[in-house]
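Reopening: D-2-hydroxyacid dehydrogenase still failing for me.
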Amino acid sequence: MTKILMTSVRDDEEPAIKAYASEHQIEIVTSPKLIQDALDQLDGVDGVVIQQRGKVTDNVYPTLKEHGIKQLTTRTAGYDTINLELAHQNGLAVTNVPAYSPRSVAEFALMQIFRLLRHTPVVDHRVANADFRWSGLQAKEIHSATIGIIGVGRIGGTLAKLLHALNATVLGYDVKPREDLKGIVEYTTKEDLLQRADVVSLHVDLNPTSEGLLTKKDFTLMQPTAGLVNASRGPVVNTADLIAALKNGEIAAAALDTVEGEATVFAQDHQADQLKDAPQIKELVDLPNVILTPHIAFFTNIAVQNMVDIALDDVMAILNGHPAKHEIK
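Support: Ran it again with your exact input. Result attached.
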């Protein structure tokens, strides 16, 4: 019987995993550990599926090869945790799940756009301190707002359609403008988008060209009343520069679902240490004009099901000698 090891498995994934194993008559072994901490479970394993925010350590690749494993699948869109060169050197086909549910992240970003337009970070902070004054809280209705989307791909394009349905003006910046979004998105330069948008929403992959995409010079272009939503990847934004911009009033607010250094913080309980080892994230938590969420934009019923099913479909294709739909070359 085919045996697959899935690591970094959460309780909410177990029903989808069990259903897949039953339907396809295979054995799936699950572990909450990272792949580098679960190498002792590789005996008799035919395929491996991971999900982690930290790097896969270099010793994993030859170990997988030694056990006769031919692939390494991540059930996430991002695959920067995997060293593709080392994987290929060890004969491993690498696959990901590029589109588990664009709607899940787009809906989350839309919610955060509404929250920034309605000044809810400041409202929540004031009310928590028994301050119920209205000063500075006049909001913009969505149909009167201009929203800039950086990265108009699967997720950004879905968000654009939602915003267009609400009669918002939608600006887009992408190296590959989409013809199917004509009449929905006004494509422009990054600089023009930053200058005009009431809220900027980021939806780019993490790669060498997107790392540090927004820094100090970019924040100075934005309106002092503007907000930023990041539901893509943390390193896309220079955190120190963002904090300075938020403190200096260069931008009004930010809603961040992902930040630099999140791997040691998100999905963990830090009530005891109060983030003493993550000072930048602690500073963001304490700012009254920041909404911080722990990388949960994707986290819906449909997305979790799709992440499991699509990842395992690719593993089964490779094990059966067929091309995987989502192999990364």
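The longest strand covers residues 146-150. If you still see a failure, please send the error message rather than a screenshot.
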